[in-house]
Design goal:
Strand order of the largest sheet: 1-4-5-6-7-10-11-12
Structural class: alpha/beta
Strand content: 25-35%
CATH superfamily: Aldolase class I
Radius of gyration: 17 Å
Number of helices: 11
CATH architecture: Alpha-Beta Barrel
Shape: globular
Length: 244
């Protein structure tokens, strides 16, 4: 499905360029109105990132998110600085349908395995953000500031034994650029890991990108900047996906 994305920093909708907080763009959008329109057109899921919570867990924007949940019936998955079971419980109690786990997948592997068992594969999404060098897909964490020695394939293999279902995979070099997604990456991992429902994210700039990802076999496409900047409408994206 098509999953519109919204990043929030200090209460405002923003986009970062390649994850850089020094390269931030603000958007003046009536979110309530926009989500009503999305709901009418058939959007089933949203993706929200708490950039304030990612930088500092004490600054998690819980009141803002509680407000968003109160005025939309669209299911929402949320990520950003989620590091403890308490974090997960708070967000699920607020009404979020899926929790997106990033850095902890690398730094607390056994804990994340326990979460997959406890909450089930339908509630947990692993966010694996990668830099590709010499065809090696190295995972970066901590808001993409730290590159690890773990590869994308290693981590998917590691968590597949825990019935892993959802993986949000982002090529960092593409994120926020509107330069098109890394089609080769998704083609490769969709073929290799047929049991995973991949969420493709980063670089989507036009309807042709949407169509190509659908043909590759990606289950979900997360679209942020293109929709915010009206490169195409949500209606056009949904139609493209359905008819692809």
């Amino acid at each position: 499905m098509i999953i519109p994305a919204f990043d929030f920093f200090e209460g405002k909708i923003v986009r970062l360029y390649k994850g850089n907080y020094l390269n931030i763009k603000y958007y003046n959008i009536n979110l309530n109105e926009l989500l009503l329109n999305y709901e009418r057109q058939g959007v089933k899921f949203l993706h929200i990132v708490d950039l304030s919570g990612t930088k500092d867990v004490k600054k998690r924007q819980l009141e803002l998110f509680k407000n968003i949940i109160s005025y939309t019936n669209i299911s929402i998955q949320i990520g950003g600085g989620i590091r403890t079971e308490e974090d997960i419980n708070i967000l699920l109690e607020l009404g979020f349908k899926r929790i997106v786990i990033g850095s902890s997948v690398i730094t607390n592997q056994n804990t994340v395995k326990k979460w997959l068992k406890k909450y089930g594969p339908n509630k947990i999404v692993l966010a694996l953000d990668i830099n590709i060098k010499n065809s090696i897909k190295k995972i970066s964490i901590n808001g993409w500031l730290k590159e690890t020695n773990f590869t994308l394939e290693e981590i998917i293999d590691l968590f597949s034994s825990e019935n892993l279902k959802y993986v949000l995979c982002t090529d960092i070099s593409k994120d926020g650029t509107l330069l098109g997604p890394n089609f080769l990456l998704y083609k490769e991992i969709v073929k290799k890991f047929r049991h995973i429902k991949f969420q493709a994210s980063g670089g989507i700039s036009n309807l042709s990108d949407v169509l190509s990802l659908k043909k590759i076999g990606v289950n979900n496409i997360i679209i942020g900047r293109s929709l915010l900047e009206k490169k195409f409408t949500i209606g056009e994206a949904l139609e493209c996906w359905q008819n692809g």
